[in-house]
Structures are given as structure tokens and as C-alpha cells.
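[recover] target loaded
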């Protein structure tokens, strides 16, 4: 599986700070937390994703000899830093919200506890991995909610922002409930089923549409799907009806037809009628082309006879919300809670936990954010996943993550599940955390102007 593994996939300021931490002897334990400051107006919730790739990154993080040689060649860094990096291994602890869990603003999704230079250095790549998968999984979850019972397939690799982004988008959307992806490497890397039909160019390359269908069916008879909107969608549907008995005599069954343009709802209705009249009631209809969750919801509400959808650009780029205001902030150093006071960016200090309560019907009733040592009603969301730089358990199967995501989406309050209206989910701040924050304010005020 292709991975971006270079430790130099980071910001220069991480190396600058490591240099200064080493020079100042600041090697004691630090606690950082990754969270999203606020939800975008069009997101009522987010879905945790990307943890396994973060743990892979932390377990395998190494500076090879050529990395050190290049850093030395720049003349920017001291021998002390280069020696430190040459033997660097992440040996810290990680607590995290399991993938497939719904999360909300200011709730820590992941916590890193490690010596300060190490905990600081991993920030950039860790955020890079988590941001993309949380972003895409959350978009995919909205699509799943918009089209219940329909098979959804990721079609977005070609417009993803790079190869790794496309690959991770396939994984994140599958965790959220998609049936599969068009990306072949995602099947090899993650075991996600890949789906594919044909392009319009395949039809255009043939002298006739019927011949294109026949040639394709004989070459690729399994899971056979015909793309029928290259010229005239209804005429192509009739062609499918005409050639289906020919193929059946050869032991080849037409599984589906795909519509990729036009008034998809109207075309699907007419194509369904043509197929049914031609005794092809088992042939399903699949739609693609510029779809997002709002269009999926519209097609479902209109009763369009569509059995599955391919979602591309809007998914892998999270077109309406291309970025989240996610951050990775220092919460404690050397046993002392730390916080940021910047206007609009103030943080809650200390190691934190989120407790989630459920009502009698199993729906989420509200969360409480408080200090990790608090004892509150509900289920704590963050769990230990790494100690001393090593995983505490084998990676979970994607199937188990999908099950968690399905259960999490089912447990969302009805208003939060809606994709067309904003809804607030209650997240309270525990009294111990409020007291700790006030104490941190005093600690900062007493020392702010000291040399």
C-alpha cells in the first residue's frame, strides 16, 4: 500500500521547536489533544475516523540516515538535534475516541501523552491524517442518512486532492457506511469491495451501443452493469432489453444499468418501466454524476426508483465544507494544566474525558466534557489505544468500525440526523473542568510577565 512515510512531512516550526526544547532541557511529559473547535453551519455532528493510520504513523516514525544527512546539509540544525532525531522513536501514550463514533465541537478525539519534543513533533502529520478522514467520514455519514437502504459507492478518487487523499477517502466513507469504492488500491489495502462499470468512451469507441454492451458483457460478465446515458438513455434501456436474452443464452446476466446525467429521477422512472416491461425486473438502477447528500435526499423523497448511487467529487473533497477548524493543543506540561487565552481560540486545560448519556430509547441525550479523573454518568468516549509507543490491541476490522458507525448514526437524536437544518446537541462542561480552567487562568496571570 502506498504511504507517505517520510518524517519530513511536517512543518518547519516543529523542528524549530524541537531544537529549542532540547536546548532548554524541556523534556518532561506533555499532553496534547486533537479536537474541532466548532462545527461548520452545515454539520450537526462529525464522525471519528483515521485513528489506525495515526497509530501506524506513530509506531513506524523513524528518521533514516538520508533524512538526517539532508537536514544536516541545510545548515539549519545543531548536532544536538540531529543526534536526537537519528534515534527518535515515539514512545508515548495515546487515548482516543474509537473510529465510527459521533463527536461534537471541543470534544477531544485523540490525546497524546509523551515527552514534550515528541508530543509536539507529531502534530502536523497527525492532524493531516485525522482531518481528512474525519472530514470525509462526516460527509459520507450525511449521504448514508440521506439515502437509507441504498447502496452508496465512492466514485471520487480522480478528483481527490492527491493519491493518499483518495485512498483514505475510500476508507473513511466505507467506515461511515458506503458499500464500496471505485478505487482498486482500496480493495488491496483495506479489503473494501471495488465497483466499476465502463466509461462513455468505451461506448463511443464502438460502432454501435449494442455492440459495445455485448463486447463488454462477454469480457466482464460478473456483476455486469451497463452505462446507458451516452446517447439516448431510454433507447439504451430498450437495447438492454433486446440483448438480455442473447446474453442469458450465453449464461450472462445483466445486473444493473447506470445513469450518469440528465434528470435522473425522471429518467430512472422511465428506464424502470422499460426494464419491467422487458421482463428485467431484477435489473437494478444505479445513478451517479454530481451527486451530494442533498440531491440524494431529493431523489429519495421523490420516490425515484434508484437502488444505488455513486458519489464522487462532493465526497472526496467534502465540497461544501472543505476544511474543519481542527487543532492539536497543549493541555498539560510537567503536571501543570495549560490553556490558550486567544480571543475566539481559548481552550479548556488539562486531560479531559467525554461522558455520553443515552435516553430510554437508546438515543444520545447529551455529553459532558470534564477532567479525565471525574466520575460522571454515562459512557466515557476516550479509551487507551497505545502505551509506550505500541498498540494495546490489534487493529479492529473495518466491519466492526462500520457496525459502530451504524449504531452511532442510529443513536443520534432525530434533529441532529437531519441534513437540511442546523441542530444543537447538548455538550455540558463539568464543574471540575470549569474550576481547573479558572485555576489555569490564575497560574498564567501570576507568571505571564516573569522573565
Amino acid at each position: 500500500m502506498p504511504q507517505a512515510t517520510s518524517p519530513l512531512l511536517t512543518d518547519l516550526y516543529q523542528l524549530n521547536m524541537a531544537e529549542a526544547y532540547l536546548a532548554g532541557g524541556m523534556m518532561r511529559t506533555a499532553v496534547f489533544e486533537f479536537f474541532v473547535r466548532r462545527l461548520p453551519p452545515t454539520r450537526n455532528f462529525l464522525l471519528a475516523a483515521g485513528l489506525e493510520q495515526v497509530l501506524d504513523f506513530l509506531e513506524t516514525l523513524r528518521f533514516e540516515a538520508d533524512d538526517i544527512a539532508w537536514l544536516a546539509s541545510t545548515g539549519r540544525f545543531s548536532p544536538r538535534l540531529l543526534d536526537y532525531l537519528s534515534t527518535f522513536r515515539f514512545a508515548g501514550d495515546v487515548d482516543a475516541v474509537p473510529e465510527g463514533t459521533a463527536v461534537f465541537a471541543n470534544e477531544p478525539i485523540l490525546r497524546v501523552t509523551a515527552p514534550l519534543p515528541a508530543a509536539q513533533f507529531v502534530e502536523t502529520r497527525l492532524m493531516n491524517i485525522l482531518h481528512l478522514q474525519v472530514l470525509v467520514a462526516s460527509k459520507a455519514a450525511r449521504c448514508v442518512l440521506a439515502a437509507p437502504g441504498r447502496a452508496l459507492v465512492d466514485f471520487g478518487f480522480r478528483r481527490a486532492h492527491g493519491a493518499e487523499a483518495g485512498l483514505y477517502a475510500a476508507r473513511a466513507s466505507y467506515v461511515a457506511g458506503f458499500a464500496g469504492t471505485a478505487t482498486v488500491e482500496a480493495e488491496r489495502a483495506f479489503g473494501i469491495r471495488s465497483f466499476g462499470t465502463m466509461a462513455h468512451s468505451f461506448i463511443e469507441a464502438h460502432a454501435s451501443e449494442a455492440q459495445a454492451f455485448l463486447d463488454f458483457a462477454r469480457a466482464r460478465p460478473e456483476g455486469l452493469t451497463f452505462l446507458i446515458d451516452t446517447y439516448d438513455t431510454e433507447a439504451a434501456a430498450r437495447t438492454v432489453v433486446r440483448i438480455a436474452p442473447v446474453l442469458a443464452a450465453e449464461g450472462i446476466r445483466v445486473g444493473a444499468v447506470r445513469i450518469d446525467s440528465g434528470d435522473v429521477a425522471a429518467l430512472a422512472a422511465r428506464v424502470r418501466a422499460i426494464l419491467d416491461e422487458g421482463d428485467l425486473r431484477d435489473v437494478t438502477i444505479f445513478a451517479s454524476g454530481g451527486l451530494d447528500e442533498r440531491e440524494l435526499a431529493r431523489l429519495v423523497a421523490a420516490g425515484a426508483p434508484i437502488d444505488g448511487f455513486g458519489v464522487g467529487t462532493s465526497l472526496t473533497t467534502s465540497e461544501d465544507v472543505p476544511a474543519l477548524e481542527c487543532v492539536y493543543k497543549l493541555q498539560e506540561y510537567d503536571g501543570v494544566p495549560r490553556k490558550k487565552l486567544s480571543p475566539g481560540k481559548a481552550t479548556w486545560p488539562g486531560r479531559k474525558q467525554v461522558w455520553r448519556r443515552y435516553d430510554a430509547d437508546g438515543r444520545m441525550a447529551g455529553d459532558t466534557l470534564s477532567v479525565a479523573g471525574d466520575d460522571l454518568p454515562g459512557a466515557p468516549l476516550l479509551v487507551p489505544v497505545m502505551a509506550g509507543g505500541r498498540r494495546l490491541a490489534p487493529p479492529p476490522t473495518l466491519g466492526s468500525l462500520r457496525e459502530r458507525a451504524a449504531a452511532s448514526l442510529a443513536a443520534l437524536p432525530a434533529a441532529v440526523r437531519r441534513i437540511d437544518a442546523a441542530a444543537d446537541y447538548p455538550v455540558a462542561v463539568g464543574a471540575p473542568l470549569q474550576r481547573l480552567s479558572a485555576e489555569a487562568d490564575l497560574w498564567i496571570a501570576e507568571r505571564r510577565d516573569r522573565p
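[recover] notes: The chain has a mean pLDDT of 96.
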